[in-house]
């Protein structure tokens, strides 16, 4: 996901995307603790997506 894709969305849609991403991060961390996560770099990518969404929200 890129910032240019996010800046065209409205605030309600960004908030729902943020909520989904935070839930995805929570489940990825749980999978990491139980050794079910095959690629630990997914957590880093999810955190970067959350930061991009937060940046788009703050820009609005």
Counted up, domains total 1
Please provide the count of β strands: 0
Radius of gyration: 13 Å
* H-E order: HHH
How far apart are the first and last residues' alpha carbons, in Å?
18 Å
Can you give the mean pLDDT? 93
- Percent range for helical residues? over 70%
Q: What is the makeup of the main sheet? A: none
CATH topology: Helix Hairpins
Residues in β-strands, percent: under 5%
CATH class: Mainly Alpha
* Form type: elongated
- Contiguous uncertain segments of 5+ residues: none
Q: Supply the number of helical segments.
A: 3
Family: Belongs to the universal ribosomal protein uL29 family.
Protein name: Large ribosomal subunit protein uL29
Organism: Campylobacter gracilis RM3268
InterPro entries: Ribosomal_uL29, Ribosomal_uL29_CS, Ribosomal_uL29_sf
Report on the architecture of this protein.
This protein starts with a helix and ends with a helix. The protein has a single domain (1-57), classed as Helix Hairpins, CATH 1.10.287. The chain is 77% helix and 0% strand. With 60 residues, the chain is mostly helical. The chain has three helices and no strands.
């Amino acid at each position: 996901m890129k910032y240019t894709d996010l800046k065209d969305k409205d605030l309600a849609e960004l908030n729902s995307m943020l909520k989904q991403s935070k839930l995805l991060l929570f489940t990825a961390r749980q999978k990491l603790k139980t050794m079910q996560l095959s690629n630990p770099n997914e957590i880093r990518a999810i955190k970067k997506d959350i930061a991009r969404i937060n940046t788009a929200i703050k820009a609005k």
